[in-house]
C-alpha cells in the first residue's frame, strides 16, 4: 500500500521540523485559539523578540501560520488547513500500520489452526 497525501516530502519535512520544537508548538497552540501579534507572543516567553520572530518564521515557512501587517504590528494566525493535511498524512500511516497488524493477526490465527 502506498501512502497518498497532498504534501510533498519537502512540505512534510518543514512541518515536522517546525513541530519538533516546544516553543513553536506553543505558538501554534496560542494562534489556534486566536490571532496574536508577534510582540504579544514575545511577551509570553523568556527569550528575545528576535528569537520569537525566528520561531514564527519557521512556522510560517512550514505553512502552519500566516503573518500579516496591521499597523505597526505583525499579526500571526494559525493555518488549520495545513494542520489538517498533516493529520491526513498521519492517518494514512496509521491505516497502513493497522493493515499490517491485521495481516499479522490473520497469519498467527492460520498458524494456530494448523
What would the average pLDDT be, to the nearest integer?
A: 90
Domain unit count: 1
Span between N and C termini? 29 Å
Helix count? 5
Structural category: alpha+beta
The main pleated sheet reads as: 3 strands, antiparallel
Element-by-element helix/strand order:
HHEHHEEH
Q: Return the CATH architecture.
A: Orthogonal Bundle
Regions with pLDDT < 50 over 5+ consecutive residues?
A: none
**How many E strands?**
3
InterPro entries: ArsR-like_HTH, HTH_ArsR_DNA-bd_dom, WH-like_DNA-bd_sf, WH_DNA-bd_sf
Organism: Antiquaquibacter soli
Protein name: Metalloregulator ArsR/SmtB family transcription factor
Domain HTH arsR-type: 4-98
Describe this structure in words.
The protein starts with 8 loop residues before the first helix and ends with a helix. Helix 1 (9-19) packs antiparallel against helix 4 (49-61). With 114 residues, the chain is an alpha+beta fold. The protein has one domain: Winged helix-like DNA-binding domain superfamily/Winged helix DNA-binding domain (Arc Repressor Mutant, subunit A), CATH 1.10.10. It has five helices and three strands. It has helices spanning 9-19, 22-33, 38-43, 49-61, 80-113; strands at residues 36-37, 65-70, 73-78. Strand 2 and strand 3 form a beta hairpin. The model has no long low-confidence stretch (mean pLDDT 90). Residues 4-98 form the HTH arsR-type domain. It holds the Pfam family HTH_20. This is Metalloregulator ArsR/SmtB family transcription factor.
Summarize the structure.
This protein has 114 residues and is α+β, with helices and mostly antiparallel strands.
Amino acid at each position: 500500500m502506498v501512502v497518498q497525501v497532498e504534501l510533498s516530502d519537502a512540505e512534510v519535512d518543514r512541518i515536522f521540523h517546525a513541530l519538533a520544537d516546544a516553543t513553536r508548538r506553543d505558538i501554534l497552540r496560542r494562534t489556534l485559539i486566536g490571532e496574536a501579534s508577534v510582540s504579544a507572543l514575545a511577551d509570553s516567553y523568556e527569550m528575545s523578540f528576535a528569537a520569537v520572530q525566528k520561531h514564527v518564521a519557521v512556522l510560517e515557512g512550514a505553512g502552519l501560520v500566516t503573518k500579516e501587517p496591521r499597523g505597526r504590528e505583525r499579526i500571526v494566525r494559525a493555518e488549520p488547513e495545513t494542520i489538517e493535511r498533516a493529520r491526513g498524512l498521519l492517518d494514512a500511516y496509521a491505516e497502513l500500520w493497522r493493515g499490517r497488524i491485521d495481516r499479522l493477526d490473520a497469519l498467527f490465527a492460520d498458524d494456530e489452526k494448523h
